[in-house]
Amino acid sequence: MTGDGLLGLPRRREPDLTGLATIALDTAGRVVSWSVTATALFGYPAREVVGRDVCDVLLTGPGQRELVARALTEVAAGRVHIATVAGGSLGEGRFALRWEPLGGPGEGGAGSETVLLIATQAWPQPVPSWLSQATARIGSSLDLVQTASEVVEAAVPGFADAAVIYAAERLLAAGELEPPRAGHGAAVRRLAARLAGQDEAVIAGLLPIGEVLVLGEDTLRSRAMATGEPVLSGQLDRETAERLARIPGGRQVAAQYSSLLAMPLIARGVVVGCVTFGRAPASPAFNPGDIALADELASRAAVCLDNARLYDRERRIALALQRGLLPGRPLVPDRLEVAPVYQPVGDNVVGGDWHDIVPLSGGRAALMVGDAMGHGPEAAAIMVQLRTAAHTLASLELPPEEVLSRLDTMAAGMDPTAEGLTAAQFATCIYAVIDPSGGTGEIARAGHLPPVLVRPDGATEVLDLSAGLPLGLGTGTFQSTRFSLAPGATLALYTDGLVENRARPIDSGLAALRQALSAVLARPGSTLDDSCQKVTQMLREHGEDDITLMLARIRG
User: Which helix (DSSP H) or strand (DSSP E) does residue 529 occupy?
Assistant: First the structure.
């Protein structure tokens, strides 16, 4: 029989990958992953090369170290580098080398943490089109489920009639790279599934994404994960067949597959999951050539999935830190309305800006906005200490100038080396106490930008206050100034990221802030929260620093 097989599935030819190998490197050129076909092509087992510089293992000929340096530079910039080489450990044969980003914090572009090196012998090699497409496609995202979906979509129907990917649950939940032990089952989470000829609703009912399973030790997947080797079978294992049989339609679907292949997903030398392929009777059973082909796909998938997992873990850690470092919902006195907005610069989740609201006796409230020098986690470490101290001092109902004086002493006593810094850390702060019953306020600043007062008619005024020195000098003296805050008037406290950048001097930025506040607050029916968001959006276009804006007014 020639042409298409039964059910319209294409006939598959046994692949010949003896001239193709994939190698994953880190940005310094050290081998991270070494595929089975790399061993077949170059003769080195993975255990002898992982962790070593590729120039000490493979590219040892004249000028090849310089070639590797150029290629790594190109990949670091998000570009693909191609070269043809011979000599050294490669011998007399000529090889085409393709270097490309393989994902990481830069999402497969500039800043990627992993480099994929594809080595092909110079004479033509019959590489299936689906594998070529998979090589170019997988790892385009750092989303764990999307990456897994790219793998199964590449495999079905080009390589198999079914593909399901699982990740080790302990790895996802606890971040522990602990290999499964022989004689024990595996707890896994299903990340993606694709069955040829089945619609998405049927697949979702049989193999729901995100489902966590505890597999028995005799299942194909547990055996593949425990041994780190592929497992071939002519039928589903009993446990899997029984599980599917309990689902409506599951028995019929399970009976469609007569050849199964479970491949471990191995990254950084540890099994991180498993992918199971299935073929129907109309397709040829899996053979050793198919295993080599599946290994190429599994090697790339494992690295991409692990990158996505690491990114997801770092994102969750960052969000947890943000929730812990930023203030929660404040307790605001009944007669006072307060709306804050905080936006860290760039990809940072937290930075040096802080704001806080502390209720005081008599219906009063202390409002503060501060800005520790720098960005990112180092500035955040200083910020959280100063914010905590300021909150405690405010609860003692000390006057504003006394709060700033004590914060200055504390900041000056910080050990910069303990915070991962190389120089003394400075911060600015503005601190105000609002008394709604009297329509008054008392305010002091330590090197911070002056507040803006917006009157009910939209007119704005920059309050004239003693500037004070930044916190951290240990010698600053601060003065408080009393001001009137009539019902309907709004006090705006902010950090310099809102009004200053390289393209806009601070005077122009302050004028833009006053104009934005006047226009937005004059809109009828606009809440203070909406106004705070809108003003921030209007001024953050060219932001180069963390942004904080706090608006406060006495209810009428």
Answer: helix 528-539
Q: Round to whole Å and give the CA distance between 210 and 165.
A: 11
Q: What is the mean pLDDT of residues 432-458?
A: 93
The three-class DSSP label of residue 545 is coil
Centroid of chain to Cα 103: 11
Is pTM beyond 0.90 here? Answer: no
Q: Euclidean distance between the first and final Cα of the chain, in Å?
A: 87
What pLDDT was estimated at residue 393?
Answer: 92
Question: E strands along 252-407, which residues?
Answer: 259-267, 270-279, 336-343, 353-359, 365-372
d(CA 428, CA 35): 55
Write the CB contacts of 173 (distance below 8 Å, at least 6 apart in sequence). Answer: none
Q: In whole angstroms, give the CA distance from residue 133 to residue 111.
A: 23
Whether the pLDDT of residue 15 is over 80: the answer is no
Domains of the chain: 142-287+307-321 (3.30.450.40), 326-554 (3.60.40.10)
For residue range 41-76, list pLDDT tens digits in order: 888 888 899 999 999 988 888 778 888 998 899 888
pLDDT band at 253 (very low <50, low <70, confident <90, very high): confident
CA of 184: how far to CAs of 180, 227, 275, in Å?
A: 7, 11, 18
Helix (H) or strand (E) holding 330: none
Length of the chain: 556
What does the buried/exposed string (b/e) look like for 452-464 if buried means 16 or more CB atoms within 10 Å of the residue's CB? bbbeeeeebeebe
The dihedral sign for the CA sequence 215, 221, 226, 232: positive
